[in-house]
Amino acid sequence: xxxxxxxxxxxxTLSRRAEIVDALRDIVPGEGVIADENSMRVxxxxxxxxxxxxxxxxxxxxxxxxxxxxxxxxGEQGIRVVPRGSGTSLSGGALPLGDAVLLVMxxxxxxxxxxxxNRCAVVQPGVTNLGITHAVQERGFYYAPDPSSQIACSxxxxxxxxxxxxxxxxxxxxxxxVIGVELVTIDGEIMRxxxxxxxxxxxDLLGVITxxxxxxxxxxxxxxxxxQKPETARAxxxxxxxxxxxxxxxxxIISEGIIPGGMEMMDKPAIHAAEDFVHAGYPLDVEALLIxxxxxxxxxxxxxIGRVEEIAKRNKSTTLRVSxxxxxxxxxxxxxxxxxxxxxxxxxxxxxxxxxxxxxxLPVVLARMRELSDHYNLRVANVFHAGxxxxxxxxxxxxxxxxxxxxxxxxxxxxxxxCVEVGGVLTGEHGVGVEKRDLMPSMFTxxxxxxxxxxxxxxxxxxxxxxxxMFPQLHRCAELGRMxxxxxxxxxxxxPRF
Length: 498
Description:
Residues 51-229 form the FAD-binding PCMH-type domain. This is FAD-linked oxidase C-terminal domain-containing protein. Keywords: FAD, Flavoprotein, Oxidoreductase. It holds the Pfam family FAD-oxidase_C. This protein has helices at residues 11-15, 17-27, 37-40, 64-77, 129-136, 155-161, 168-171, 205-209, 243-255, 268-278, 298-314, 326-337, 339-343, 362-376, 404-421, 446-459; strands spanning 33-34, 57-59, 80-84, 100-104, 111-115, 120-123, 141-142, 178-184, 190-194, 218-225, 227-228, 232-240, 262-267, 288-296, 319-322, 349-352, 355-356, 380-385, 390-391, 393-397. By secondary structure, the protein is of the alpha+beta class. The strands form 5 sheets. A 7-stranded antiparallel sheet has the order 15-12-14-13-18-20-16, sandwiched between helices. The chain has a 5-stranded antiparallel sheet with strand order 5-6-10-8-9. Helix 9 runs antiparallel to helix 14. It is globular.
């Protein structure tokens, strides 16, 4: 797996495979356990297809009690568990392990309740992101986070990775739109965190769970916020002679207090690939393209369109087109949403990166990425959420050329280090997984990482949930100062404790 080091396989678990499979079949009867090699092949990778591992066994539960029973059994037997949703993760977060139960939540695919009075919906984790919007759109509502993979990605996976999307600039990430979860811990306990109420007292456990990448528990139910569709939404398609001009336009739009519903940017390779694929009417004689969507009351949208046009002209825009209908607006977005598969048509393979930078650093980072592209002799197409600085460089390579994947990974690591260097972070929405795991020390100190691991110890003291992800070096809980209580006696009982 291209030099990727994963946890050493537990020989005791491997030797008991037949026994473990039988026990799991007792818990999840029928076709809920997949153990033959050919059938498990479809689960050997997630969206980061550069890395593949055949699962130990695949389990597809249908009820919360089955999830709890599987988790309790694995916890008691010391068996590792890797949770998986739709498998669209681009960071290897759902990469299986050769000695771990792959717990696939795709059968949890029902919408349990739609509460328009409280503007929320209760759904199972296997429901697709777009499925929530489809369920409520007849009443004029929608679910705001909209990753490019929204037609396939599951809401449980969105919670695990804190997914965003093209409209997260104004309406927030998953963490801003999830108000409650049901979670099963490794010891089989079923917990409810949050709910239909606005805020919960005490620690922000919901914030801890959202974005935890399956390291703390398995989500079995999600309560999400649904929003009313804006009265008007119109999109501007703006072309620029350079990416730097487009980047400066983005910075000025935000600095003038305008918060678009979405603001996306593509460079020339991505523009051409998307246009050939979708035929959205993108200009092909520009180096960079902005899609700026403005929504709200019609009078406000008309006013803001005029202001954005002025800002674009100041920044040397060469083309500007405003959508005149809902169909045309959707067509503008269709090219952007299809940019990732479109790039797949111009290269045998591509590596989709994910890093976030301060908006003001956009011109600097784009220029540096061009230098890195020349250095590694690899093409790169840029598609990203310009409004919040979330970059998605697509490094084009050919996995059949010896050494090219390794070179691509080095290129990607340099891009992520650059993001941190200019004041950004390693990920905006794809998560850490295995892709960015070994880069965590470039962003966090050892003390930071140890504190994060203490949180994991509180939920999963034996490190059975999704091991090998996120942390470059996992310490035992005892090494992190976890207190040992023997027969109810704590060390130094005379000391006051708070």
